[in-house]
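Chapter review: from sequence to fold.
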Amino acid sequence: MLVVRVELHSAITRHTTEIARMIIANDGTGDSTRGNYWARAAKGETPENMLPAAIMHASRKLRHVEVKDYPRYSKHVWNLVARVLAAMKYK
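The token string follows.
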């Protein structure tokens, strides 16, 4: 499972606020070279000890997509993140 966090670091207060989080997980299908993934984006801060359950709750979900037939090892992980964001229609 990959966790992508977006944090705002205030230069004035020195306070850090999590403003978004996304989970990308292998769905268990595919093969050794091509993988299939699901992803969910959530709004707001998610406590670390509640990560999977909290982001999966319907009240927090923003977008949910699947990425099929992704080349596991021939592309960098940021390419997977970019593909997920594109599938979620973030531009």
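Two observations follow directly from the output. The chain has one domain: 2-87. The mean pLDDT is 85.
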